[in-house]
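Supplementary Methods S3. Input chains for the assembly prediction are listed below.
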Amino acid sequence: MRKWGLLAAALGLTLAACGGGTTTTADGEAAPAGGGRLDVVKERGQLVCGVDGGIPGFSFVDESGTYTGLDVDICKAVAAAVLGDAEAVEYRRLDSTERFTALSGGEVDMLSRNTTWTISRDTSVGLEFAPTTFFDGQGMLVRADSGIADLEDFAGKAICVETGTTTELNLTDQMRQLGVDFEPVVFQDADAAYAAYDEGRCEGMTSDKSQLVARRSTLPNPDEHTLLEVTMSKEPLGPVTTNNDSGWYDVVKWVTYGLIQAEEFGITSENIATFEATDNPDIARFLGQEGTLGTDMGLPNDFMVQVITQVGNYGEVYERNVGADSEFALERGQNALWTEGGLMYSPPFR
Amino acid sequence: MAHDSGSKTFDLKAMLRDERFWKIAFQVITLIVVLLLLSFFLGNLNRNLIQQGRAFGFSFLRNPAGFSIGESLIQYRPNDPYWRALMVGLGNTLTLVVGGIVLTTLLGVVAGVASFSKNWLLQKLSRLYVGLVQNIPLLLQLFFWYFAIFGALPNPANQIGVLGLAFLNNRGVYIPWASSALLAILGIAATVGAAIAALFLWRWRTKIRIETGVGGQAQSIALAVVALAWLAIITVGMDWTVPEGVEGGGVTGGLRLSREYVASLTALVFYTSAFVAEIVRAGIQSVSKGQWEAARTLGLNAGMVMRLVVFPQALRVIIPPMNSQYMNLTKNSSLAFAIAFPEIYSIATTTYNQTGRPVEVFVVMMATYLTLCLLITVVMNQFNRSVQFKER
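Predicted structure tokens for the full assembly:
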């Protein structure tokens, strides 16, 4: 009889587990099908955004747990557009190996985690890339006194790199082309990689240039390290969503474009009030005073007003986090507006 | 079930009271539940994959990998396919696991036996080691060995030479080695072969001496011949190359064990050995006091008591849990990923990241670890059978 009791208990447990399983499907299915991620975010009242969290200037958590950076501001912009509140964001720190599975598994609504746009990620990995928010290139950080001036100098030397990144592949390609035999030391965790570089395991550390500059500032003696002149690749970095949810993808895409368009119009968080009664039809449409650009997308019609008031335009975001107003003082360069010789260009809001 | 009662009407109550009915019914219900769960999970996976526009399949393993790997047993170039990259990872895992099992057994047994030592210092050291290492997470220990111990070694320009035979620097450890891979394999094969031959000869000699009380000289001579032959192969046949320091830093010749490998191996061995030491201690304690006393009465000294009487009996208790420690070591070797050792988990992670096929890659990985663990179990079960009581 006791045996039966046990069996019954085991059966009950199994059934309970099964029941639990079914509820998860209900959840899981609600997310991607039909209304899509946009409805899920609205219902939740919060945006779950995947970030790195360890790169000053792009996404960084300070002692009080506040996130700042260019990537973080993109999350805030999307939250402001969808929910009307730039602070309604839950950040998830993801390393480079976790990010895509977290996104396609529905753990995060979007990635804003210095992810390089490549064709294979767009197609076979199953991602959708929103417009590039930072045009970057791969660089190489070395010790100033190491005597290394070129990639050829790395013959027989070690280079630290983070796994699951495009930089890992670019490095191999470049070195293969140059016929240089080097030793890759591949870390899962960026912190461990920079620590190993710093204590001398590797002669070089490779990553996106912006990241190297930002990370250098966190090393014990930033002045002892310098970036080589060489640029090893094109690294267009931007926000990412999953395939087959074009409604949500459109939202992330057009909020990002909106940031750029706002700068082009000259609308900033400070002067936006002066555009309240504008007679420029383009701007009136952009700010939702005319037409239905926002509601057509499933957003409030004044979504860009929320974004600009709470986050600012692209220029403000850039200068605040990595540009002149930050410790990194990176030139706008390729990241300037197209009207000023850069690559930042938004299709028309019409 | 109720038919044999003779009544023609179907008696539901009787059936529900029948133990035999429930025995079968429970099995049927359990089977149905398991099948339902399985089909639910597989269906869910399939739906999700279709939703993302992907089909389950392994053909991507034939695509070129495109990434470089720091160290490898087999020849590997970045344009080799993914499956070859995974083989490189498997090879690296195996070097870690095999090296780990051998060293763990040695260190674990020594530490376990030392806890019975009459030497106060030795005994306390053994207890301290077990208590300390067992209670610190392995990942932390990996970082400790990698950054604090091997990271503290000088850079190649100031490397440490050991008797001119080996070198240590913050890139790794350089030791003398056979001049070619083929010779190294031959050397290892000769060592294993000689050990097996010696074991059989020793048993044969013991058997003859037990049965006849004399003789066994022929076997002793054969043993000596095997030992000499092995020594000759190892010393002369291997064509040893000794690492040499290069002016200005660096080493040529010899075998380089990367810092990642050495740190992973050390951490795994120290960690697992602490558990093995406890198993050995438990095994020895399980041998009844009478056995110790009887052995001492026969005039054996402390070492002989342990070696000839107590330890062989303790083995019966030691072997089964050792199996699970070896399996733990195998599975824990995947943590070496954290300190950049390119074992199979590391390569697999890179692979699924570049290809966007986590499900397939995880299937490959699970199959690999499962196979390794089952292999260990098979071998250990064989060994276990040989040390159990022989019923006569």
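The first strand of chain A starts at residue 47 and ends at 51. Chain A touches chain B through 55 residues (CB under 8 Å).
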